[in-house]
Amino acid sequence: MEFETVIGLEIHAQLKTETKIFCGCSTSFGAPPNTNTCPICLGMPGVLPVLNKRVVEFAVKLGLATNARINLYNQFARKNYFYPDLPKGYQTSQFDLPIVGRGEIEIEVDGVRKKIGITRIHMEEDAGKLIHDELEPVSHVDLNRTGTPLLEIVSEPDIRSPEEAVAYLKKLHAIVRYLDICDGNMQEGSFRCDANISLRPVGQEQFGIRTELKNMNSFKHVQNGLEYEIRRQRDILLDGEEVVQETLLWNPDKNCTESMRGKEDAHDYRYFPCPDLVPVEIDEAWVEEIRRSLPEMPDEKKDRFRDQYKLPEYDAVLLTGDIAVANYFESAVAAGAQPKRASNWIMTELLRELKGEDITSCRVSAGQLAALLKMIDANTISGKIAKTVFQDMMETGDDAETIVKEKNLIQVSDEGELTAIVERIVAANPDQAEDYRNGKTKIMGYFVGQLMKETKGKANPKLVNELFVKVLTQ
Protein backbone atom coordinates (compact mmCIF):
# COMPACT_ATOMS: atom_id res chain seq x y z
CA MET A 1 0.00 0.00 0.00
CA GLU A 2 1.24 3.47 -0.91
CA PHE A 3 0.75 6.32 1.55
CA GLU A 4 0.57 10.09 1.18
CA THR A 5 2.15 12.27 3.85
CA VAL A 6 0.15 15.20 5.21
CA ILE A 7 2.02 17.83 7.23
CA GLY A 8 0.93 21.08 8.84
CA LEU A 9 3.34 23.38 10.68
CA GLU A 10 2.78 25.68 13.63
CA ILE A 11 5.63 28.18 13.83
CA HIS A 12 6.29 30.44 16.81
CA ALA A 13 8.22 33.63 16.09
CA GLN A 14 9.38 35.61 19.12
CA LEU A 15 9.06 39.31 18.34
CA LYS A 16 11.85 41.87 18.54
CA THR A 17 10.10 44.21 20.93
CA GLU A 18 11.94 45.81 23.81
CA THR A 19 9.16 44.95 26.27
CA LYS A 20 6.70 42.11 26.75
CA ILE A 21 3.27 41.86 25.19
CA PHE A 22 1.20 43.01 28.22
CA CYS A 23 3.71 44.73 30.55
CA GLY A 24 6.85 46.84 30.59
CA CYS A 25 9.32 44.04 31.48
CA SER A 26 12.36 43.63 29.25
CA THR A 27 12.51 40.84 26.66
CA SER A 28 16.33 40.69 26.72
CA PHE A 29 17.79 37.19 26.43
CA GLY A 30 20.24 35.81 28.98
CA ALA A 31 19.28 37.87 32.05
CA PRO A 32 19.62 36.14 35.46
CA PRO A 33 16.65 33.83 36.11
CA ASN A 34 13.38 35.47 37.20
CA THR A 35 14.69 39.05 36.99
CA ASN A 36 12.69 40.22 33.94
CA THR A 37 9.36 39.75 35.70
CA CYS A 38 6.59 41.77 37.34
CA PRO A 39 3.14 41.14 38.90
CA ILE A 40 1.49 41.36 35.44
CA CYS A 41 3.56 38.74 33.60
CA LEU A 42 3.55 36.57 36.73
CA GLY A 43 -0.25 36.64 36.76
CA MET A 44 -0.68 38.04 40.27
CA PRO A 45 -4.28 38.64 41.49
CA GLY A 46 -5.79 42.01 40.64
CA VAL A 47 -3.40 43.00 37.83
CA LEU A 48 -4.53 44.09 34.37
CA PRO A 49 -2.61 43.62 31.10
CA VAL A 50 -2.06 46.43 28.58
CA LEU A 51 -1.46 45.44 24.95
CA ASN A 52 1.86 46.44 23.38
CA LYS A 53 0.99 48.32 20.16
CA ARG A 54 4.26 47.23 18.54
CA VAL A 55 3.10 43.60 18.67
CA VAL A 56 -0.01 44.52 16.69
CA GLU A 57 2.11 46.38 14.13
CA PHE A 58 4.44 43.40 13.70
CA ALA A 59 1.48 41.04 13.27
CA VAL A 60 0.04 43.26 10.53
CA LYS A 61 3.44 43.39 8.80
CA LEU A 62 3.70 39.62 8.70
CA GLY A 63 0.12 39.29 7.51
CA LEU A 64 0.75 41.68 4.62
CA ALA A 65 4.03 39.93 3.73
CA THR A 66 2.25 36.56 3.53
CA ASN A 67 -0.58 37.81 1.30
CA ALA A 68 -3.04 37.32 4.14
CA ARG A 69 -6.27 39.01 5.24
CA ILE A 70 -5.89 41.47 8.10
CA ASN A 71 -8.82 41.19 10.50
CA LEU A 72 -9.49 44.76 11.58
CA TYR A 73 -11.54 43.40 14.49
CA ASN A 74 -9.86 40.65 16.52
CA GLN A 75 -9.93 39.39 20.07
CA PHE A 76 -7.74 37.77 22.71
CA ALA A 77 -8.79 34.52 24.36
CA ARG A 78 -7.69 32.52 27.37
CA LYS A 79 -6.18 29.14 26.54
CA ASN A 80 -6.51 27.18 29.77
CA TYR A 81 -3.84 24.68 30.76
CA PHE A 82 -1.49 24.28 33.67
CA TYR A 83 2.27 23.84 33.55
CA PRO A 84 4.82 24.89 36.18
CA ASP A 85 6.21 27.54 33.79
CA LEU A 86 2.78 29.17 33.23
CA PRO A 87 1.96 30.92 36.52
CA LYS A 88 -1.53 32.12 35.56
CA GLY A 89 -2.77 28.67 34.65
CA TYR A 90 -3.81 29.97 31.24
CA GLN A 91 -2.10 31.51 28.21
CA THR A 92 -3.41 34.74 26.70
CA SER A 93 -3.69 33.94 23.00
CA GLN A 94 -6.16 34.26 20.12
CA PHE A 95 -8.47 31.59 18.78
CA ASP A 96 -11.62 32.18 16.74
CA LEU A 97 -10.90 35.88 16.07
CA PRO A 98 -7.17 36.10 15.19
CA ILE A 99 -5.52 39.24 13.87
CA VAL A 100 -4.53 37.61 10.55
CA GLY A 101 -6.69 35.28 8.48
CA ARG A 102 -6.04 33.20 5.36
CA GLY A 103 -2.79 33.78 3.47
CA GLU A 104 -0.18 31.88 1.47
CA ILE A 105 3.47 31.75 0.54
CA GLU A 106 5.21 30.11 -2.39
CA ILE A 107 8.00 27.56 -1.95
CA GLU A 108 10.21 25.75 -4.44
CA VAL A 109 11.56 22.21 -4.07
CA ASP A 110 13.62 20.54 -6.83
CA GLY A 111 12.55 23.19 -9.30
CA VAL A 112 8.83 22.73 -8.60
CA ARG A 113 6.95 25.71 -7.18
CA LYS A 114 4.02 25.26 -4.84
CA LYS A 115 1.81 27.51 -2.73
CA ILE A 116 1.33 26.62 0.94
CA GLY A 117 -1.75 28.04 2.59
CA ILE A 118 -1.68 29.83 5.93
CA THR A 119 -4.74 29.25 8.11
CA ARG A 120 -4.11 32.13 10.48
CA ILE A 121 -1.48 34.15 12.32
CA HIS A 122 -2.27 35.15 15.87
CA MET A 123 -0.71 37.06 18.75
CA GLU A 124 0.02 35.37 22.06
CA GLU A 125 2.33 35.38 25.06
CA ASP A 126 5.11 32.87 25.66
CA ALA A 127 5.37 30.68 28.73
CA GLY A 128 8.44 30.42 30.96
CA LYS A 129 11.17 27.81 30.84
CA LEU A 130 11.84 24.68 32.87
CA ILE A 131 15.48 23.86 33.57
CA HIS A 132 15.95 20.24 34.55
CA ASP A 133 18.73 19.51 37.03
CA GLU A 134 21.20 16.97 35.67
CA LEU A 135 22.27 15.78 39.13
CA GLU A 136 19.05 15.78 41.13
CA PRO A 137 15.43 14.84 40.25
CA VAL A 138 14.23 18.45 40.37
CA SER A 139 13.38 21.18 37.85
CA HIS A 140 13.94 24.91 38.19
CA VAL A 141 11.56 27.49 36.74
CA ASP A 142 12.82 30.62 34.94
CA LEU A 143 9.92 32.99 34.24
CA ASN A 144 11.89 35.64 32.34
CA ARG A 145 10.36 34.44 29.05
CA THR A 146 6.81 34.57 30.42
CA GLY A 147 4.83 37.23 28.56
CA THR A 148 7.32 37.55 25.71
CA PRO A 149 5.32 38.36 22.57
CA LEU A 150 4.90 35.63 19.96
CA LEU A 151 3.28 35.32 16.59
CA GLU A 152 2.04 31.82 15.84
CA ILE A 153 1.81 31.01 12.13
CA VAL A 154 -0.47 28.03 11.46
CA SER A 155 -0.23 26.45 8.03
CA GLU A 156 -2.87 24.57 6.09
CA PRO A 157 -2.18 20.80 5.81
CA ASP A 158 -0.74 21.42 2.32
CA ILE A 159 2.77 20.09 2.92
CA ARG A 160 3.53 16.65 1.50
CA SER A 161 7.17 15.95 2.37
CA PRO A 162 9.91 16.86 4.86
CA GLU A 163 11.64 18.76 2.05
CA GLU A 164 8.56 20.93 1.49
CA ALA A 165 8.28 21.48 5.25
CA VAL A 166 11.87 22.72 5.48
CA ALA A 167 11.42 24.95 2.42
CA TYR A 168 8.29 26.49 3.98
CA LEU A 169 10.05 26.96 7.31
CA LYS A 170 13.08 28.58 5.66
CA LYS A 171 10.86 30.90 3.62
CA LEU A 172 9.03 32.13 6.73
CA HIS A 173 12.34 32.42 8.58
CA ALA A 174 13.60 34.69 5.81
CA ILE A 175 10.41 36.75 5.80
CA VAL A 176 10.44 37.53 9.54
CA ARG A 177 14.13 38.47 9.28
CA TYR A 178 13.52 40.72 6.27
CA LEU A 179 10.68 42.42 8.16
CA ASP A 180 13.03 42.77 11.18
CA ILE A 181 10.29 41.58 13.53
CA CYS A 182 12.13 38.45 14.79
CA ASP A 183 15.85 37.71 15.04
CA GLY A 184 15.23 34.13 13.86
CA ASN A 185 17.67 32.68 16.39
CA MET A 186 16.57 29.05 16.52
CA GLN A 187 19.17 28.05 19.12
CA GLU A 188 17.72 30.56 21.60
CA GLY A 189 14.18 29.46 20.76
CA SER A 190 13.04 32.70 19.17
CA PHE A 191 11.97 30.81 16.04
CA ARG A 192 10.71 27.29 16.63
CA CYS A 193 8.39 24.82 15.02
CA ASP A 194 5.73 22.23 15.89
CA ALA A 195 4.74 19.77 13.16
CA ASN A 196 1.48 17.84 12.80
CA ILE A 197 1.98 14.77 10.64
CA SER A 198 -0.23 11.95 9.42
CA LEU A 199 -0.31 9.37 6.65
CA ARG A 200 -3.24 8.26 4.52
CA PRO A 201 -3.59 5.79 1.65
CA VAL A 202 -3.01 7.45 -1.72
CA GLY A 203 -6.35 8.60 -3.08
CA GLN A 204 -8.07 8.75 0.30
CA GLU A 205 -9.63 12.13 1.08
CA GLN A 206 -9.96 11.74 4.84
CA PHE A 207 -6.90 12.60 6.92
CA GLY A 208 -5.20 9.94 8.99
CA ILE A 209 -4.58 10.08 12.74
CA ARG A 210 -1.91 12.67 13.41
CA THR A 211 0.92 13.10 15.86
CA GLU A 212 2.61 16.35 16.81
CA LEU A 213 6.35 16.91 16.99
CA LYS A 214 7.00 19.75 19.46
CA ASN A 215 9.56 22.55 19.66
CA MET A 216 12.03 21.65 16.93
CA ASN A 217 14.63 24.40 16.80
CA SER A 218 16.67 23.71 13.67
CA PHE A 219 15.98 22.97 10.03
CA LYS A 220 17.95 19.73 10.35
CA HIS A 221 15.83 18.57 13.30
CA VAL A 222 12.63 19.27 11.35
CA GLN A 223 13.92 17.28 8.35
CA ASN A 224 15.16 14.34 10.43
CA GLY A 225 12.18 14.31 12.80
CA LEU A 226 9.63 14.24 9.99
CA GLU A 227 11.51 11.56 8.07
CA TYR A 228 11.63 9.36 11.17
CA GLU A 229 7.96 9.89 12.00
CA ILE A 230 6.91 9.05 8.42
CA ARG A 231 8.79 5.75 8.65
CA ARG A 232 7.38 5.01 12.11
CA GLN A 233 3.76 5.67 11.13
CA ARG A 234 4.14 3.75 7.88
CA ASP A 235 5.40 0.67 9.72
CA ILE A 236 2.47 0.88 12.16
CA LEU A 237 -0.10 1.14 9.35
CA LEU A 238 1.47 -1.68 7.32
CA ASP A 239 1.23 -3.89 10.43
CA GLY A 240 -2.51 -3.22 10.45
CA GLU A 241 -2.40 -1.16 13.63
CA GLU A 242 -3.60 2.38 14.37
CA VAL A 243 -1.39 5.40 15.03
CA VAL A 244 -1.91 6.83 18.51
CA GLN A 245 -2.70 10.56 18.57
CA GLU A 246 -0.04 12.03 20.86
CA THR A 247 2.52 14.77 21.29
CA LEU A 248 6.11 13.73 20.62
CA LEU A 249 9.55 15.20 21.18
CA TRP A 250 12.43 14.75 18.76
CA ASN A 251 15.56 13.35 20.40
CA PRO A 252 18.48 14.34 18.13
CA ASP A 253 20.97 12.29 20.16
CA LYS A 254 19.03 9.06 19.63
CA ASN A 255 17.58 10.10 16.24
CA CYS A 256 14.07 9.11 17.24
CA THR A 257 10.81 10.54 18.57
CA GLU A 258 9.74 10.10 22.18
CA SER A 259 6.24 10.33 23.65
CA MET A 260 5.58 13.50 25.67
CA ARG A 261 1.82 13.42 26.38
CA GLY A 262 -1.58 12.69 24.84
CA LYS A 263 -2.41 15.11 22.04
CA GLU A 264 -4.82 17.85 23.04
CA ASP A 265 -7.50 19.24 20.74
CA ALA A 266 -8.87 22.79 20.84
CA HIS A 267 -11.77 21.84 23.12
CA ASP A 268 -9.32 20.54 25.73
CA TYR A 269 -8.07 24.08 26.31
CA ARG A 270 -11.54 25.55 27.03
CA TYR A 271 -10.93 28.75 25.07
CA PHE A 272 -13.05 31.76 26.01
CA PRO A 273 -12.71 35.53 25.39
CA CYS A 274 -10.22 37.16 27.76
CA PRO A 275 -12.21 39.41 30.12
CA ASP A 276 -9.17 41.58 30.92
CA LEU A 277 -8.57 42.75 27.34
CA VAL A 278 -10.99 44.61 25.08
CA PRO A 279 -11.26 43.50 21.44
CA VAL A 280 -8.59 44.97 19.16
CA GLU A 281 -9.91 47.34 16.50
CA ILE A 282 -7.43 48.37 13.81
CA ASP A 283 -7.77 51.42 11.59
CA GLU A 284 -7.56 50.56 7.89
CA ALA A 285 -5.50 53.68 7.20
CA TRP A 286 -2.87 52.39 9.66
CA VAL A 287 -2.75 49.06 7.79
CA GLU A 288 -2.08 50.92 4.53
CA GLU A 289 0.62 52.97 6.23
CA ILE A 290 2.29 49.75 7.36
CA ARG A 291 1.93 48.29 3.86
CA ARG A 292 3.80 51.26 2.40
CA SER A 293 6.62 50.78 4.91
CA LEU A 294 7.27 47.13 4.01
CA PRO A 295 10.84 46.45 2.83
CA GLU A 296 11.83 44.54 -0.29
CA MET A 297 10.90 40.92 0.41
CA PRO A 298 12.94 37.76 -0.39
CA ASP A 299 11.26 36.91 -3.71
CA GLU A 300 11.46 40.52 -4.89
CA LYS A 301 15.13 40.74 -3.93
CA LYS A 302 15.86 37.41 -5.64
CA ASP A 303 14.35 38.66 -8.90
CA ARG A 304 16.26 41.93 -8.65
CA PHE A 305 19.58 40.18 -7.96
CA ARG A 306 19.03 37.98 -11.00
CA ASP A 307 18.13 40.90 -13.27
CA GLN A 308 20.34 43.68 -11.92
CA TYR A 309 23.50 41.66 -11.26
CA LYS A 310 22.98 39.03 -13.98
CA LEU A 311 23.32 36.23 -11.46
CA PRO A 312 22.12 32.67 -12.09
CA GLU A 313 18.88 31.69 -10.35
CA TYR A 314 20.80 29.43 -7.96
CA ASP A 315 23.04 32.28 -6.79
CA ALA A 316 20.12 34.68 -6.40
CA VAL A 317 18.12 32.18 -4.32
CA LEU A 318 21.02 31.36 -2.00
CA LEU A 319 22.13 34.97 -1.48
CA THR A 320 18.65 36.27 -0.72
CA GLY A 321 17.66 33.45 1.63
CA ASP A 322 19.22 35.43 4.49
CA ILE A 323 18.85 39.20 4.64
CA ALA A 324 22.29 39.56 6.26
CA VAL A 325 23.96 37.62 3.42
CA ALA A 326 22.06 39.66 0.82
CA ASN A 327 23.17 42.92 2.44
CA TYR A 328 26.78 41.71 2.65
CA PHE A 329 26.76 40.85 -1.07
CA GLU A 330 25.36 44.23 -2.09
CA SER A 331 27.87 46.04 0.12
CA ALA A 332 30.73 44.10 -1.53
CA VAL A 333 29.45 45.01 -5.01
CA ALA A 334 29.03 48.64 -3.97
CA ALA A 335 32.68 48.57 -2.86
CA GLY A 336 33.78 47.54 -6.34
CA ALA A 337 33.59 43.73 -6.45
CA GLN A 338 32.37 42.05 -9.64
CA PRO A 339 28.91 40.61 -8.81
CA LYS A 340 29.51 37.03 -10.00
CA ARG A 341 32.93 36.79 -8.38
CA ALA A 342 31.54 38.20 -5.13
CA SER A 343 28.68 35.72 -5.27
CA ASN A 344 31.06 32.79 -5.80
CA TRP A 345 33.27 33.79 -2.89
CA ILE A 346 30.39 34.37 -0.49
CA MET A 347 28.70 31.07 -1.37
CA THR A 348 31.90 29.01 -1.15
CA GLU A 349 34.82 30.48 0.78
CA LEU A 350 32.96 32.80 3.15
CA LEU A 351 30.05 30.56 4.17
CA ARG A 352 32.42 27.60 4.57
CA GLU A 353 34.72 29.57 6.87
CA LEU A 354 31.74 30.80 8.93
CA LYS A 355 30.79 27.18 9.72
CA GLY A 356 27.12 28.03 10.20
CA GLU A 357 27.63 31.24 12.19
CA ASP A 358 25.72 34.39 11.28
CA ILE A 359 27.49 36.48 8.63
CA THR A 360 27.13 39.54 10.87
CA SER A 361 29.82 37.99 13.11
CA CYS A 362 32.28 37.74 10.20
CA ARG A 363 35.65 39.42 10.85
CA VAL A 364 36.01 40.25 7.15
CA SER A 365 33.87 43.20 6.14
CA ALA A 366 32.20 43.39 2.74
CA GLY A 367 34.60 46.18 1.80
CA GLN A 368 37.61 44.03 2.74
CA LEU A 369 36.32 41.15 0.63
CA ALA A 370 35.81 43.52 -2.31
CA ALA A 371 39.39 44.75 -1.97
CA LEU A 372 40.67 41.16 -2.01
CA LEU A 373 38.66 40.32 -5.13
CA LYS A 374 39.92 43.44 -6.89
CA MET A 375 43.49 42.26 -6.24
CA ILE A 376 42.65 39.05 -8.13
CA ASP A 377 41.15 41.04 -11.02
CA ALA A 378 44.26 43.22 -11.16
CA ASN A 379 46.52 40.12 -11.25
CA THR A 380 48.18 41.29 -8.05
CA ILE A 381 47.58 37.85 -6.52
CA SER A 382 46.33 34.56 -7.93
CA GLY A 383 43.02 32.99 -7.02
CA LYS A 384 44.85 30.25 -5.13
CA ILE A 385 46.88 32.72 -3.09
CA ALA A 386 43.71 34.74 -2.48
CA LYS A 387 42.16 31.76 -0.67
CA THR A 388 45.15 31.62 1.68
CA VAL A 389 44.98 35.36 2.22
CA PHE A 390 41.26 35.12 2.93
CA GLN A 391 41.83 32.52 5.64
CA ASP A 392 44.32 34.87 7.29
CA MET A 393 41.80 37.70 7.02
CA MET A 394 39.16 35.58 8.76
CA GLU A 395 41.57 34.78 11.59
CA THR A 396 43.08 38.23 12.10
CA GLY A 397 40.60 40.74 10.66
CA ASP A 398 43.48 42.36 8.72
CA ASP A 399 42.88 43.61 5.18
CA ALA A 400 44.22 41.75 2.15
CA GLU A 401 46.81 44.34 1.14
CA THR A 402 48.48 44.19 4.55
CA ILE A 403 48.69 40.38 4.54
CA VAL A 404 49.95 40.23 0.94
CA LYS A 405 52.74 42.73 1.69
CA GLU A 406 53.74 41.13 5.00
CA LYS A 407 53.99 37.65 3.46
CA ASN A 408 55.36 38.79 0.09
CA LEU A 409 52.56 37.13 -1.85
CA ILE A 410 52.39 39.50 -4.82
CA GLN A 411 51.86 37.51 -8.00
CA VAL A 412 54.82 37.04 -10.33
CA SER A 413 53.77 38.26 -13.78
CA ASP A 414 57.17 39.15 -15.25
CA GLU A 415 57.22 37.29 -18.57
CA GLY A 416 61.00 37.20 -18.83
CA GLU A 417 61.43 35.79 -15.32
CA LEU A 418 58.76 33.15 -15.82
CA THR A 419 60.03 32.17 -19.30
CA ALA A 420 63.43 31.34 -17.84
CA ILE A 421 61.83 29.07 -15.23
CA VAL A 422 59.59 27.42 -17.83
CA GLU A 423 62.53 26.66 -20.16
CA ARG A 424 64.53 25.20 -17.28
CA ILE A 425 61.66 22.92 -16.18
CA VAL A 426 61.03 21.71 -19.76
CA ALA A 427 64.73 21.01 -20.25
CA ALA A 428 64.86 19.04 -16.99
CA ASN A 429 61.89 16.86 -18.03
CA PRO A 430 62.50 15.75 -21.63
CA ASP A 431 60.35 12.60 -21.41
CA GLN A 432 57.32 14.55 -20.17
CA ALA A 433 57.93 17.20 -22.83
CA GLU A 434 57.94 14.53 -25.54
CA ASP A 435 54.72 13.05 -24.15
CA TYR A 436 53.05 16.46 -24.38
CA ARG A 437 54.20 16.89 -27.99
CA ASN A 438 52.75 13.46 -28.76
CA GLY A 439 49.28 14.58 -27.64
CA LYS A 440 49.27 13.80 -23.93
CA THR A 441 48.23 17.34 -23.06
CA LYS A 442 47.02 16.46 -19.57
CA ILE A 443 50.66 16.37 -18.52
CA MET A 444 50.54 20.17 -18.62
CA GLY A 445 49.34 19.98 -15.00
CA TYR A 446 52.65 18.37 -14.06
CA PHE A 447 54.67 21.21 -15.58
CA VAL A 448 52.50 23.93 -14.02
CA GLY A 449 52.72 22.18 -10.65
CA GLN A 450 56.53 22.15 -10.84
CA LEU A 451 56.63 25.87 -11.57
CA MET A 452 54.12 26.73 -8.85
CA LYS A 453 56.18 24.74 -6.37
CA GLU A 454 59.29 26.67 -7.32
CA THR A 455 57.53 30.07 -7.13
CA LYS A 456 55.58 29.08 -3.98
CA GLY A 457 52.32 29.52 -5.83
CA LYS A 458 52.94 33.17 -6.70
CA ALA A 459 53.18 32.83 -10.48
CA ASN A 460 50.41 34.14 -12.72
CA PRO A 461 48.68 30.85 -13.69
CA LYS A 462 47.23 32.14 -16.97
CA LEU A 463 50.60 33.44 -18.13
CA VAL A 464 52.35 30.27 -16.95
CA ASN A 465 50.07 28.07 -19.08
CA GLU A 466 50.62 30.29 -22.11
CA LEU A 467 54.40 30.17 -21.71
CA PHE A 468 54.52 26.39 -21.31
CA VAL A 469 52.43 25.93 -24.48
CA LYS A 470 54.76 28.31 -26.33
CA VAL A 471 57.98 26.59 -25.18
CA LEU A 472 56.67 23.03 -25.61
CA THR A 473 55.45 23.64 -29.17
CA GLN A 474 58.59 25.35 -30.44
UniProtKB/TrEMBL annotation:
ATP-binding keyword on record: yes
Please give the Pfam families that the UniProt record associates with this protein.
GatB_N (PF02934), GatB_Yqey (PF02637)
What is the enzyme's main class?
Answer: ligase
Which GO biological process entries does UniProt record here?
glutaminyl-tRNAGln biosynthesis via transamidation; translation
* GO molecular function terms listed in the Swiss-Prot or TrEMBL record: asparaginyl-tRNA synthase (glutamine-hydrolyzing) activity; ATP binding; glutaminyl-tRNA synthase (glutamine-hydrolyzing) activity; transferase activity
Supply the alphabetized keyword list.
Answer: ATP-binding, Ligase, Nucleotide-binding, Protein biosynthesis, Transferase
Domain Asn/Gln amidotransferase, residue spans: 327-472
Task: State the superkingdom.
Answer: Bacteria
Q: What is its EC number?
A: 6.3.5.-
Q: Which reaction does it catalyse?
A: L-glutamyl-tRNA(Gln) + L-glutamine + ATP + H2O = L-glutaminyl-tRNA(Gln) + L-glutamate + ADP + phosphate + H(+); L-aspartyl-tRNA(Asn) + L-glutamine + ATP + H2O = L-asparaginyl-tRNA(Asn) + L-glutamate + ADP + phosphate + 2 H(+)
General function of this protein: Allows the formation of correctly charged Asn-tRNA(Asn) or Gln-tRNA(Gln) through the transamidation of misacylated Asp-tRNA(Asn) or Glu-tRNA(Gln) in organisms which lack either or both of asparaginyl-tRNA or glutaminyl-tRNA synthetases. The reaction takes place in the presence of glutamine and ATP through an activated phospho-Asp-tRNA(Asn) or phospho-Glu-tRNA(Gln).
What the record says about family reads: Belongs to the GatB/GatE family. GatB subfamily.
Subunit comment for this entry? Answer: Heterotrimer of A, B and C subunits.
Q: What is this protein called?
A: Aspartyl/glutamyl-tRNA(Asn/Gln) amidotransferase subunit B
Please tell me the species this chain comes from. Desulforhopalus singaporensis
Q: What gene does this protein come from?
A: gatB
